[in-house]
User: What shape does this take?
Amino acid sequence: MPRRLSRVMPLPLLVAAILLVSSCASDAPSTHGPRQSPGSELVRRMTFSPLQVTIPRVGREVDRRVLGNGIILYLAEDQSLPVLDVYAVFRAGSLYETAARPGVAQFTASQLRNGGTTRRTAEALNEELEVLGASIEASASAEAISLSLSALAKDTDQAMELLAEVIRQPAFDGKPLEIFKGRVIEDLRRLADNPARLLAREFTRTLYTEAHPLGRPLTPAQAEAIQAEHLRDYYRRFFHPNNMMLAVVGDFRREEMAARIQTLFGDWPSSPLDLPAPPEVQPRFERGVYIIPRNLAQASLALGHFGINRFNPDRYAIELMDAILGGSGFSSRIMERIRTEEGLAYSVGTMFPTSTRDISLFWATAQTKNENVPRAVAAILEEMRRIQRQPVSQDELDRAKEALVNSFVFRFTSRFGIVVQLMTQEFNGYPADYLDTLLDRYRAVTVADVQRVAGEYLHPDASTILIIGDPTQFESGMRTFGPVHRLPVESPG
Amino acid sequence: MRYPRHSCVPVILLALLLTQSRPAAPASVPEDIRLPFSEHTLKNGMRFLIVERHDSPTFAAYLRFQVGSANETPGFTGLAHLLEHMMFKGTTLFGTLDPGRELPLLDKIDALHQSLQAEKAKGHLPGGKPDAAAVAALEKETAVLEAEAKQFIVHNELWEIYRRNGAVRLNASTSYEGTQYFVSFPGNRLELWALLESDRMRNPVFREFYTEREVVQEERRERVDTSPRGQLWEAALATAFVALPYRHPVIGWPSELENLTRLQAREFFRAYYAPNNALAVLVGDLDPAEVIRTVERYFGSIPAQPTPPPLPREEPPQPGERRIRIEFPAEPQLLMLYRSPPIGHPDTHALTVLGSLLGDGRSSRLYKRLVEERRLVTSVAAGPWFLRYGGLFLIQATPRASHTLEEVEAAIEEEIRRAQSELPTPRELTKVRNQMEVSVVRGLASNGGLASQLGEAWSLTGDWRFAFEERKMIQAVTAEDVVAAAKRYLSPRDRTVAWLVRGQAPPSFPPVGRPGSGLQPWESN
Assistant: This one.
């Protein structure tokens, strides 16, 4: 049940901050910037004993092997708790959906877990897992369908058998599919109840457009039309051992587990894969203001444009630039200005994803009183222009780097987390020494690099601005930011 | 005055006996999990619990003051939470370039805000009216002084020092009965943690108070005023409790929140942020002896103070069912709150088991019946919530169109009647017990998670061991206990039923002639 708490920092931003901060490592003593408080001198004088951070490696902490049928298996023993954790991933996902059939990846993931198997009904599977206190969950993202299993170590055999059954023998029964469909359709009807969700969907749709799978959110009619046969087709296309990676971590003996996996998955025949290149994003940059009228006490706004994909060598400089601009909570300029100094918002910040396969979106978001929308938008754009126009200070850049370096150790606090990271690196096509060289890549970024990537990858004058709120209080003030369009308010039907 | 106390208590956390589960695999008993716990109390009464664990060179810290919105008095709601925000604003050491010149300005700004609020408050008197010219003059003068004070401010310095030193999971939260400050830090930075936290216990400066008050009003708009769930919860709790302070939202009522002053925050801080009202749990790559030396040095000289005595707190018997209907531009939702006993009461364990039977997982009774069989709802949750002076058993459901709230409520009642008349099966009980055990094991996984569990248990019950022992008591619950608890507590006359139905949001502007803002019924998440 929900715990009733209020926090100093909104959670979504906090999570984003942690993800970013934990992107990286060693141990420089603290120094402080030019604005000196009496306390900063105390901190500067503190010394810290060196921290032993071992960067995990395949072949040392983690074992990687390839089964005869192509399954790439990552294995690690972990005796710290009597548990088992498994993560399986297939290259599939919404990027591979056709315009005619959006949602099929999400539905396939759901019905792998909830649609029963050829050996037992969905109900029997639920009962069997829950009596063990175990869980299997499946989900779809843009480029993967993944499954996770968590169980107590003593139930390893039974839990692994259930996972293999879910992966290899799904039934895609009709009744669970109808239940899921009903839930999805109801959830779509309710999407507008949550301004943040509506904002994310409409911002993404506006930028990617129909031309790209990421710009085609599911409609109730499309959900209604999905049949079990579509899921079976999708499954047959992507679910082959030679399209699978598997991470298994827990309180077991490694060779025993390898043998068990061979028994459960070894006789699954491989098959030629048909993985077409997903459509490329064609980034366009143009000014535009879009308003979804809603009569609420606060407006939600998003402002941004196309970004980069994970193969862009500028990604490290971009991450540091974004940390300084708006991506690192209270340490960033946009938070300092809009929240700390002007008191305009509780939640405000930017994100610049750098690890997606296709071009991502850079965007800033804020939630503020309707009448303050133009002021908040102007402040965000000004900060974008300022980081383009003036070099950041060496101190600001050093601080952002230190945060990455000093928090690097938190990437490696759990063995399962380590294994999933290493496997994901391979999935993403990163080099094997990615983690070993990562900190050096951040360290190499200069003040001039930050200014260069700000100039190249930020587009304050060609940004899309989307606002959900009461237009009577801000619409006239928005014309200076571009042509204003109203988007229809959806009725939940 | 307490004396320093230090004991090293090796505790066997759990015998992970997942027995009685015939259908579940044969029980191979895993080894017990042993963790070394050290408890230490400073002379000033501040308590520390240290859990040594060397899996990674990091540690988590959880610092809790035993004060929350339940300590607020009418007229000042939201103060505990606003104070939590202010604790990030620095001290006489941090966040300032020159405290000697800055602090007198802050006092002057306070005086101006007092005059401003007094002028505006004239509008609340019969026939009274604020003098617009006086208000404008005061606002202008305040702005000048605030600009002057701003020159001395180093914004967000505490946060920035934490972050550049590698902190993650840095945040704080306020609940009804506690305010907690937590962070995970590299293992070599214990002393920095002690410096920063002891300094803000000793010398906080609530600079930028009036701007932060605006921020919290935006937080309220985000969590409550624009959120159907926030609306529903705030109104439902304000209805379910009449005497207990859980009836007012943690974030505060708008008209009170927007008038809180820095002076009130300082008074509240003085009353409740005393070392004898604080506890800290540190979990991770630590040497207990070194921790004790460090905290003695940094926290030991903060003076103890008398804390306000606890107020008598008891909810009168409920004379009958309460029902409310919230109108908001959103799809319908249902919330049912049954009065339950406070934390530590012997019946709480059976209610926990009942919550799990009804609402935990896809094989739970409410999920099977309402989501899968009858397809009335898209989600349903059930479970107890125990606080120091009282508790609630909650059931929350999201109807699927075009099923009505009446239908959903009737279907839930049917399951409640079943729970009151049929014994749970042995398999159901096994399932609940195993799920509880798993949650204990998984709860040990992260330093931060373990630190907050221990800290919360310690604060609410006086004994951190409660975090583990509660599970043993839950394991002892019988089928008969569950039926008895369902009969005793899930009775219609002891409940509050809250419906959210589609309608207009309450007006966001105050009525004419009422300076300050809304007297409308607002909400919390």
